[in-house]
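The instructor's notes for this session suggest beginning with a concrete chain rather than abstract definitions. Hand out the sequence below and ask the class to guess, before any prediction is shown, which regions might be ordered.
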Amino acid sequence: MPQVRERSLRVPAVSAEIVVRFALPEDWPAVAGLLVELGRGVAQGTADDPTHQMQFAGHLRRLEVVSLIAQRADEVVGVLDMEYHQRLGDHRPQARVNDAVVTERVRGEGVGRLLLERAEELARKRGCFRMSLVTAGWREDTHSFYVKGGWDDYGKWFVKSLVDDVAPSGQPLRDDN
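After discussion, reveal the predicted structure:
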């Protein structure tokens, strides 16, 4: 398995109960479980697949990626994956949240807010001029959560699948023939 570099920036505990920290390769089974719970198109057995575990470890090594874990006691209850990328028209990077998932049974307890606050802090330290994220149009509770947190509804998101076996949502297509 690829080695994950140590990062000099420490992620402090943000609450007496919840600790937000950088993700480690061994967090993959919990992260995969959260992605399955959200319906991200991740197969149930992905958590135990060595190829996916290795891919996650490599993902964590990328300099433009920040993956944060929210942990309560010994349980991973949330994950946020963010990357920095350059946009035309601004010399500063933009932070883009690719995935933000909190397990359903602790939603409403501040875990998502803590993850986003820490991500914003890291993006500001990186010199980002803004943060962006995308969520499904039907996730109305999530939309309210983001607006309450100071995010603006900025537009529409279009997706075109480039493979025949997965829908744009990431869900596997069923062959009903």
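Then share the key points. The chain has one domain: 18-148. The longest helix spans residues 111-126.
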